[in-house]
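Researcher: Here's the sequence for the chain we discussed earlier.
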Amino acid sequence: MKLNKILDPRELLDVSQVSIELAKELIRYSRYSIEYYFSNQESPPEPKELIERFPIVKKRSAVFITLEKLSGSRRELRGCIGFVIPYMPLWRAVSESAISSAFKDPRFSPLERSEMNDIVIELSILSLSHRLTDPLREVLIGRDGLYVVRGLYSGVLLPQVPIDYCWDNETFLAETCMKAGLEPDCWLDDKTEVYAIPGRIFSEIEPNGEIFERDLLREYRERCGYSLER
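Model: Thanks. This is the structure I predict for it:
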């Protein structure tokens, strides 16, 4: 995560500038990238029209693409991969994350074309991470994802995950530690680095359907009954 310190701020995306119109185009482009890969076994070419309409997609950004498969009224995770550090322009990070989520997530078999009509796509656009000195007090559910690092072990959970499971701060920290392959209380160890990664989440309501921005704070209050006032 020290790379954050050497990135040129002028090259980085300000996530507050992402409009719902741009988010819709990015999710459509992520779906197109998967379809293109089915046919060509490679990433699609640079989307010139998208870049002309929304020049900020040339800015670097951390991105994750989550794929969920509809099974009746349930959604089942089908892939989730992305970049914690903003190595790439936003458009490329979206495309590469979508392809990796569909075909290269080691937890799942590669996506089959026949599944595409049942796949819901969720886009997480993340800000730069910042290290927490008092994780239990400083992490804010509904705003932050978490990234834990100790030695060769690391794990990340996106901002929407504690909302989906109604976790409190301590559970969120413990689950991120376990995602990293560490003990649940690893965040208490001085050798463990804990980072918050604020983000914005955009999702399809249904496959190829309407796209909206998730209000994680509202979801957390309504679904989980927690108050997040500080």
